[in-house]
Structure formats: C-alpha cells, structure tokens
Amino acid sequence: MIRALALALLAVVATAPAAHAASPVGLTDGFYVDPDSNPAVWVRDHAGDGRQAAIKANISTKPIARWFGAWSGDIKTAVSGYVNKTGTKLPVLVAYNIPGRDACGGHSGGGAGTPEAYRAWISSFASAIGSRPAVVVIEPDSLADFGCMDGGKVAERTAMIKYATEQFKAKAPNTWAYLDAGNAQWVPAATMATRLDSAGVRNVRGFSINVSNYHTTAASTAYGNSVSGALPGYTKPYVIDTSRNGNGHNGEWCNPGGRKLGTPARTGGGAEMLLWVKVPGDSDGRCGKAPGVDAGKFDPQLAFDLVHGY
Q1: What are phi and psi of 112, to 5 degrees?
Q2: Does residue 16 lie within any of the structural domains?
C-alpha cells in the first residue's frame, strides 16, 4: 500500500508542469487600446477635420504601444499609472532612454545622461510593472546602431541592455520583454545573434524586429528565423512591428511616401506577435514628408497617408 502511494505520488510529480511565470497573453483578453495615444488625442480634438474619421477608424481605435523616455517624468509613476489602467487587456510598452540614443541616425537623440542614471531608470521601469502582465520592447535600435560607436561605447551599451534584461527577469515575472534587433536589412543575422546573446537575451522572452521601419512581415519573419537560428545553442521567439509595413520598404526610413498601415496587433502571424510598436502618424524626424515635424510628434497628414498608402 505504501509503495503504491509512493509510486502514485512520483507519477503526479513527474507529470506536473514546472513552475514558471505566467504568460501575459494567457492572463489577459486581448491587447489594450490606449485612449490617450497621440492619434486618439488628435481625433478627440479635431472632430471637424476631414481626415478625422479615417484616422479614428483605422488608427486611434487600434492597439498601439506606449513609448516611455525622459519626457515621461518620474518613470515609476508613469509606468505604474499606465499599466494600472489597462484592466484585463494586455499593454505594450517601449523603454526608450538609453544614453546616446540614435547615435548614428541623430533624429531621435537623447536618453539618460549616464549609465548609472539609465540603470536607475530601467530598474524603476521594471519595478513599476511588477507582477502585472505586459509586453515590453527594450530600446529600439540600440543593438543595431553600432556603426558610429567605438568599442568602449559598444561594450558600455551592451552592459546597460544586459542589466535591463536582468531587471525585467527579477522584477516583472509576468512581462514578456524583447530586446530590439533592428530590421531585415540593417545587421547580418549572425552578427545580431551575437549582439543579442551578449546583451542578455537569454534573460527575457525574445527579440523584436522592424520597429519604426517598413519591411514586410515576410521579410521580417525570414530575418527573425535566421537570427533565432544563429543564437548559440538556443532559440528565441520574436515580435514584428507591422504598424507601417503594408506596402513594404522602399529604401527610405525617415517619413517616406507611399507607405501603408500593416496588420493590426495580433498573436501569431509568422512571429510570436505582430504589434504596432511605432505609433502610426508619429514623425520619424524632420525629414521626408514631414520636414517640419520633430521625431515622436503626431502629424495627421502622415497618419492619413498611411491609411491610404499615399
């Protein structure tokens, strides 16, 4: 009898799932639609504008990531305030405050003043989410934008990103965090895999592709599979920014014409998730079709043109 009970207990232990953090997708019922996103605020304030209906129907009512940086004020207050109001929906957040941000492109420069300041900032970011379910994209372009940086700066940045992964692993157990891996035509897949590994991608859910860019989902999926396959002895899932990739990439990255909205946020679709990370209608910088609009500022004409592919 005792032996039978012991064998039964061993069978239960053997078949029981290993303890792990919960899936934020499983803990929620769809993606959060931010009522205070840049396009939503514009729609609310411009009921008489001829572009309003199209932007409302196609952009402001869709799930879009919320970006956080120095403009957010106290980061713990900003992040906790945001995730606390999402209810049963899954919020997507972007951490965008790495020192020397956009070092080579220049249009979105800025970031925390020192590595020490960044560590305090990103630690507070992770703490503010805590056990709430969330998706976080960590520092778009930061591991791809090495072309104008010397070895010391590269090592310093890599260490900061690795610290960020450790903070999310320790303090935000129900968050799926993704290190940004650039886009399909920026850094060779094997090189990016090495950078991701050095930056601690093992500590988080995976990596993100095509943030604020225009490459097709098919091209991004091929690149993501190559990057994952080149990781040393393990693979990782990835997410794709589809906010503006409906017409693909035309060789330009800064407010190009003829681009179009892509597939709205969903799970699956070739990647683990398709997300609108870049806010459609937010400028890439004073360039292209919006030479007078600063990076991150909403321009209704950019948004309207994305609806129609103009």
Answers
A1: -60, 150
A2: no
Overall domain count for the chain: 1
Within-domain flag for 148: yes
Q: Is the residue at 4 inside a domain?
A: no
Cα–Cα dist 213/136, whole Å: 18
Q: Is residue 17 in some structural domain?
A: no
Angle between helices 300-308 and 38-45 (to 10 degrees): 100
Q: How many CB atoms lie within 10 A of CB 264?
A: 17
Binding site per annotation, positions for substrate = 67, 186, 213, 253, 278
Per-residue pLDDT of the chain (310 residues; tens, 9 = 90+): 433 433 333 333 333 333 347 899 999 999 999 999 999 999 999 999 999 999 999 999 999 999 999 999 999 999 999 999 999 999 999 999 999 887 787 677 789 999 999 999 999 999 999 999 999 999 999 999 998 899 999 999 999 999 999 999 999 999 999 999 999 999 999 999 999 999 999 999 999 999 999 999 999 999 999 999 999 999 999 999 999 999 999 999 999 999 999 999 999 999 999 999 999 999 999 999 999 999 999 999 999 999 999 9
Which strand (E) or helix (H) includes residue 179?
strand 175-180
Task: List the one residue out of 234, 250, 239, 247 whose CA is nearest residue 280.
Answer: 247
Looking at residue 115, which CATH number applies to its domain?
A: 3.20.20.40
Residues recognised as catalytic: 141, 284
Q: Are 121 and 79 in contact (CB under 8 A)?
A: no
Q: CA nearest 276: which of 23, 43, 81, 91? A: 91
Sheet holding 273-275, edge to edge: 66-68, 92-95, 134-138, 175-180, 206-209, 238-241, 273-275, 266-267
Give the domain range for residue 205.
Answer: 24-308
Residue ranges at the known binding site: 67, 186, 213, 253, 278
